[in-house]
Amino acid sequence: MKKIAIAAITATSVLALSACSSGDNDVIAKTDAGNVTKGELYTNMKKTAGASVLTQLVQEKVLAKKYKVTDKEIDTKLKEYKTQLGDQYSSLKQQYGEDYLKDQVKYELLAQKAAKDNIKVTDSDTKEYYDGLKGKIRASHILVADKKTADEVEKKLKKGEKFETLAKEYSTDSSKDNGGDLGWFDKKSMDETFSKAAFGLKVGQVSDPVKTKFGYHIIKKTEERGKYDDMKKELKEEVLKQKLNDNSAVQAAIQKVMKKADVKVEDKDLKDTFNTSTSSESK
């Protein structure tokens, strides 16, 4: 899935192409050697980024006709990125502007909806994923640097504050973006001390602070493999989430929607844009 931090790389190209769509003789820059016009800028930008920009613009129009994205959904996703990217988000916003970031997020959300509508998870997919969970548990943790902070977090947990909220506030590793969720893991994939503590918990139980070479962990065991029929619905959602993170699968889903759209490129220099993208996606 195209993420906002990556999408912003093409921002200059998008803005330049859209700005140069009319008034070809308007002057962009003046020099003693001659002027640079909108038409010249457009021609050069088209050569370097025309196909990729046109692809996104057309895909967004086609997807927006079939799927709807609300302002609330866009704002929610922007808040997620703001939390995840921190200073990088502020830099992107300052460099490209909030409207551009909203456009990129809208495109991402449209692509996600197209993917959810077209990506299928079979019983075979779900069973294969279930079989792979043998010997694994699922847990979350809050990782902090010192015992004093760990004790502070522990007190808040005992007062009833939510584990996920405290993980986002205190934890020092990337799992904090997901409320401390570490996913499924076996004993060998984690620090020995951490694994011993995590596997010794009951589902829903929270550990005392556990010291490892990484710092102090407060661990919550969230799940263990049960009967397949009991877990099937949840596992199907997890498999779908994994497929939605697979860019090739998402692009294939978008192509299904695009094939039904009557796209005709009038610009002779870009006329093969969608023939090329379609053929490359199918390889």
TrEMBL record:
GO terms for cellular component: plasma membrane. Residues 1-18 form the signal peptide. Its EC number is 5.2.1.8. Its main location: membrane. GO terms for molecular function: peptidyl-prolyl cis-trans isomerase activity. It is a lipid-anchor. The keyword Cytoplasm does not apply. Keywords: Cell membrane, Isomerase, Lipoprotein, Membrane, Palmitate, Rotamase, Signal. Plays a major role in protein secretion by helping the post-translocational extracellular folding of several secreted proteins. This is Foldase protein PrsA. It comes from Bacillus velezensis (strain DSM 23117 / BGSC 10A6 / LMG 26770 / FZB42).
